[in-house]
Description:
It comes from Allacma fusca. This is Fe2OG dioxygenase domain-containing protein. Keywords: Dioxygenase, Iron, Metal-binding, Oxidoreductase, Vitamin C. 40% of the residues are buried. 38% of the residues lie in helices and 19% in strands. It is α+β, with helices and mostly antiparallel strands and 908 residues long.
Amino acid sequence: MKQGLYLWICTLTTVCSIVFSLNVGSTISGETRHLYATFPPHLEDLGKFELKIAKNLTQSLLGSKLLPIRSTIRKFVHRYLVDFYQSTGYLQIKDVIGEEQTGASNYPICAYRLIRRSWLLLKNLIAHRDFQLTFGSLRREIVYFFWRHGWPLYRDYKISAEKVLTIQHVYNFESGKLAQGLLLDIQTNCTLSSTHCYEMGNSALKTDQFTLALEWLELAKEKSLADKKTSVAFTEFLILTATDEHNFEFDDKKKDLRPTFYNRKIRYIPGDSKMAQKVRNMQYNKFKGKRGKSNENFNYWGLCSGNNFQTDEEKSFLFCWLEFKLHPGLTIGPLKLEFLARNPDVLQVYDILEDKQLEALISDAKKIKAGSNSVKTMRGQTNPRSKHLSNAEVISWPDGSHENVFSEKIAQLSGLKDISSEIQIESYSFGGHYMPRKDQLSRNLINAGDDGIAYFIFNLNNVDNGGYTAFPSLGMATKPVKGSVVFWYSQYSGGKTNLSTNHGSCPVLCGQKWVAIKRLRLSNQLMEQKYGPTQSDLEAAMFGVLNIQNTHNLDIKNIVKGIVAGVNTGVTLNARDCWNIGKHCASVSYVLPGLKWLEHALYLVKNGSDVSVKYAEVYDDWVSLQVDYECATQPEKPICHGDTSSKFFDKIAKVDNFAEKLWSMCQGKTSQAEREKSELFCWYEREIHPSYKIAPIKAEWLSLRPKADVVYFHDIISDRLMNFLMNFTYENATGITYTNELTGELFVDPLPRQVVFAWAYPDDNEVTLYASKLAERITGLKIKRINGPGQRMTLYAPGGHRAYHHDSLPGMQVATFMFYFSDVAKGGETPFISSGFNVVPRKGSAVFWYNLFTDGLHDDSTDHGGCPVIIGEKWASIRWTIFSKIYYFFDPGQLLGSQWLCECETKS
């Protein structure tokens, strides 16, 4: 009785311990389990621990006492050890003794078999009842290890197989050579049996990689005839399934075949797939070396394989040198610098980081428990990983743990300012990579100051093989060299995205890859970057000149002589200047002004008084623009061939009455009647809170109903506050750029506005909060102060303007409160087009109006714009008030701030 009870307790204990050990990785440590297929330290730990297991089991297997020859557990142990020795490269058992690391984690096939063996064979081995009785101590160690780190799951096995397939696809390896453990010229001694080949083919089929699937399955069929480890019938059935799916998808996507297809349908005869051509190879041979977005992947494959697609001319501009003039704190001796590409420049600097710094970075990164599809930080936060990354782990330090190391190097090397405290460490195990990508994400409306301007990749280690950083559009790749940094600008100086710097990371073939990434933002570099005026600056200046000339209908001859709106500026223009302005007019569809500027350039050259440009060059551009103009207005002419699709046609045929009226008002031709002016008055507002002004504020009606109600407040803000906000704008300024939907490039459109601006929020500084409170006191509208609205500071340089517009989006902006921070010597008025009057900017004043009626409808009489600044600068700061809830008494005869019983907040 006692003996039976004892056996029952032992059996129950064994079953419970087995269940506990097999589920411990997915229950207790499920939140922090390792993903062995992507993070190198995790795979290293698994390899080291498995070596310890193999040593123990090998010694036990050599003896017959613990493992009787005919016992079942001996067969399980033998099968596990055979798989271990076949996939680690050890030829003899004695080779294992004294080793601490097998190196299996460094090679794709070895790592795949390591993960598969741990997920499948080891788990089944320790679940055997005899294993607990025979290897109790070892089993407890295994259970404890995987309790801490988690068992390898099916997901690890799946990812490891997919990474092997990725390596094969990118490097165009043959399945037969991979199965023999051959990578390029490296023999890894890790081979694959028919079972493994079958699993590879099945994994490829699940991801619609038909060429790889059929290649692996045909190989599995051949191997199964020799090793008898896989059913030939099962393999042939899967080959037929893969053939069916390929042919079905081939018909559906015949016009747009992916690289995973063959060039034709596969016949249902043995080995027919071997006689067909891969679309991948056909596309690569046809498009390799050609630049452009559509060819990025083809060049990426070639660059990863060691090819270079730079032309001889491009290579002739490359060179390396020893730099002695860098900051003395950067290094003791001179640094070796090398240009990898020119225009745009990609520079590699060698030995910029010391070995101690590199070891500390990698050591700290390994301590962080990085996990699947996430970004782990030192604070334990987890963020979704970027969609561009594939099979890599990303770690960030937002607390600036190693910030000084990188910030100092960046500043000393490039002169750029790095105020971001985040460092991104990326680690790549076998097959780790990402496809070509750009550094900015295109949006319909993008603030260039929020995007990365420069990119630094610090290489923290040498990679045994693979892992290059490829630039498909530049036709070159850079090898990761320990201690070096690769640096380039991802934007042009004007804020336009440089798409030619799209780059990808090639799959790691052998070893590991560790890099540290630093991205620098444009908004932090405006005062630090050392570059002169760019093409965008020149175009903006030319547009400013022609905009002033076109708006005020000025004579070109006077402008050329330096006389602008009756003011002698003392600055003259030559024929080349007129020629450039004329060409720029054509580029923005200002046809008639463009013809006039080109005609004046011809006049200056023809008279022989100006030799800054050749007559033939100007004449050709003038004729081309003249033909476009004539074809737009008279398409029946023979030279036009009946073409009415000229890009200038709409500009010429369409008359914009509002724009013409705005130009007329900028010339001083207002339409406010004398009767309307007689009803206007000014007064001293005494109900403003005393903390804002000791004396009462002078207020003035500029317009009254039935047209827009616009009130002007004089001298309401001090010079000190205005200077603070203007300095804030200089430090945080940016321009407005738009994204070309076809090319994805950023560009500046000068037609809607030509300004530089910045946003300030009440919680940024006390001055912005004060301005918000001031607007609240004057208008009676409540303003959200915490996490609330921004205030837009805008600078209009000469030629700076704003096209006519209405401030209210549907149901949004209730009112506008606009400060003026400067007087304008000439120009810069704010014309209210429908109401027929101009607001002259005066320093320290503000103008206020409602954009909506009390019933929420738009008040179209508040349409307004900004006249081009002729001389001087115009500073304005705008605040729009938007509402969340409005309860009002409808009274069409009045529109006062006190009438709106509302809960409001302002939007920048």
